[in-house]
From TrEMBL:
Keywords: Phosphoprotein. This is PH domain-containing protein. Residues 50-164 form the PH domain. It holds the Pfam family PH. The keyword Phosphoprotein applies. GO terms for biological process: intracellular signal transduction. Gene3D superfamilies: Pleckstrin-homology domain (PH domain)/Phosphotyrosine-binding domain (PTB). PROSITE patterns: PH_DOMAIN (PS50003). It comes from the Eukaryota. GO terms for molecular function: transmembrane receptor protein tyrosine kinase adaptor activity. The keyword Phosphoprotein applies. Residues 1-26 are annotated as: Disordered. GO terms for cellular component: plasma membrane.
Length: 166
């Protein structure tokens, strides 16, 4: 029989356990250093302070040059309206995080590039309520859908205000 028969570990086992403690301490120290390097608290603080509005919305892109008829399907995104940081220019940015849990925005739009933001007409969106259009200087249009009319009006007001700020 290997071991003491009373459940005590063999000599090889106890050796690996005692050295394992040291390895695990070194590993956690390494992990802690990595975690601190990856997201410095200073940048996180700036980001949180600069966020003006954030929410989950559905959107589609309506491109003027697409020729009509071809409707793309609605996608879920996390929309973030925030003050531009150092090196990002002046004013505010609208960032689309797709999927919503993404850590980096897939689309980032300067509010100064937004030509118009308005509610959609029943003709434009007969089957959807609480939708608004974001018209860009590049002739791209984003149609966004919120959960209710209050959210839609809040997004409209905030985006319109930020358009005037740069």
């Amino acid at each position: 029989s290997s071991g003491g028969g009373d459940g005590t570990p063999t000599g090889a086992n106890s050796n690996s356990n005692s050295s394992g403690g040291g390895d695990s301490e070194r590993w956690t120290h390494r992990f802690e250093r990595l975690r601190l390097n990856k997201a410095s608290p200073a940048t996180l603080r700036v980001e949180l302070a600069s966020v003006r509005r954030e929410g989950l919305l559905n959107y589609i892109v309506a491109d003027d040059g697409s020729g009509g008829g071809s409707r793309t399907r609605w996608q879920k995104c996390r929309l973030l309206l925030r003050k531009a940081g150092k090196g990002e220019g002046e004013g505010y940015l609208l960032e689309f995080y797709i999927p919503p849990k993404a850590t980096k925005p897939r689309v980032s739009i300067a509010c100064s590039c937004v030509m118009d933001v308005r509610t959609t007409t029943p003709l434009e969106m007969p089957d959807k309520e609480n939708t608004f259009v974001l018209k860009l200087s590049s002739s791209l249009e984003y149609i966004l859908e919120t959960v209710d009319s209050l959210q839609m009006r809040s997004w409209l007001a905030d985006i319109q205000e930020c358009m005037g700020l740069g």
